[in-house]
Amino acid sequence: MTKEIGHRQPKVAIIREVLNIFVSLIWPAFFGILRFSGSRVFQLGIVVILLLVSLAFGFLKWYFFTYITTEHEISLKRGIFAKKHVHLPFERIQTITRNQPIYFQPFDVFHVTIETSGKSQDKIEFSALTLPQIEHIENLRRRSQTKSAEVIKTLSEQPAIVASYQINDRDLCLFALTSLGSLGTVGAIFLIFSQVQEFLPATLSRQFTAWLNQQNVTIFIGLVMIFIIFGFLLSFFKLYSQYFQFKISRIGQHLAITRGLFTKQNVQLRVSRVQAVHFQQSLLRRLVKLVSVDVLLASSVNNTKGEVKQTSIMPVVRMSSAGEVIQPFLPQYHFINPTNSMNANRALWYRLNMIFWLDIFIASLIWVTYYIIKWAIHFHLTYDLPLLIICTILLIGYSLLASWWQMMDQRIQVDGQYLIVQLSSNFTKHTYYMPREKIQSIATLRSMLLINKQITHLHITVRDGDSARRLTLRYLQEPLVKKINSWIVDVK
Fold this sequence. Notes:
Layout: E1 7-8, H1 13-31, H2 40-63, E2 66-69, E3 73-78, E4 84-89, E5 95-100, E6 109-115, E7 124-130, H3 131-144, H4 151-156, E8 161-166, H5 169-177, H6 181-196, H7 202-213, H8 217-242, E9 247-251, E10 254-259, E11 264-270, E12 274-281, H9 283-287, E13 290-297, E14 311-318, H10 322-326, H11 347-377, H12 384-409, E15 411-415, E16 418-425, E17 428-435, E18 439-445, E19 455-464, E20 467-477, H13 478-489
Helix pairs in contact: 1-2, 5-8, 6-8, 11-12
């Protein structure tokens, strides 16, 4: 067997390396040196120096990054001062993700992430690879993960697409409209605006401040509404462009996912690595009968910014047809709505009673802390008593309503070789479909106050990336929980 000569990435990879280094340097400089320096020449000089440093280190990172592919593994060497060698067998590869930012599209190259067991040290990233290079790696991976009896057929035929689905624009628009991400976007806009104002010329900054001081309440309300609407539109456009032309296909035992308007992304993952299927419905999406579907993997597919821990295989689909749409991609699963509630008698009462007294304890701490501070430093807040009362009522009201919703949504059901768990958190419904062999552990916990009532809490652990996700169901009937425990332990 002959090994290939070490290759470097396309030279356009230097652009990504330079951008990454420059961004990591400019933010500390922005909030540190640049904010407190009044000299524009000095600020410009700092930016130029950072840019030159980024260019130098970006080129060096590209130059000292080489890789080799063989029939069985991909290996690479990287590092400017400390050399690191990584060997990644194709058999262990679980996901291959390629992203194409808008500045890469004219060069027809992609940023590629290859993951195995979900640990950060088992992940390798290429700043830029051409499409033929990526397809070569994917073919070697597919060949290595194909059974020997099927190798000849795989090499001689193009893999067939078994199932395919693309999201329509109407459902995608509803998905973006029902997102609460606009609230965070508005906060980010206010933060950026407050920071940028410090970099404005002193005369312009004083004129703007004087103009604000002259406005009445109506103008201020109008400005706030403009910020909110702008944040909402920005959040809508972000989600819409992120999942634009989202398409999922099943090719043999792999799922291929493509999406994106400006940054195009392609994900390849093995079906056998799916630990659980997760349906998620926020309160707003319940009203429009939409659901988002992702999978928990032994290897999380994180994007370059680490924003997403799970892999979304269906960001939006009609709830009434979700099971039918997803079934061709994961044919071994049965997507039924769980109907069995194993809640013990008076479970709702026990839950609300516990939450109420917990809220009373928290509110008492807030009241006592406020009055101690008020007495110690003579601090006084206008209308403090009405504000404290309103905050206490809101705290208790929200907690009780969320807990009531949680208990109403709680379901657990065994379906053949699968366990179906339905939970609710902050009015968002979560439904998990877990194969028995993928469940990591199961534990029960009984409160001392309910020790004689045959009521218990159930904790189920399933792998999620390089960590685990814990699902908790409360106030269940103990005999039924024992049956589930026996079902998990008694593997036929």
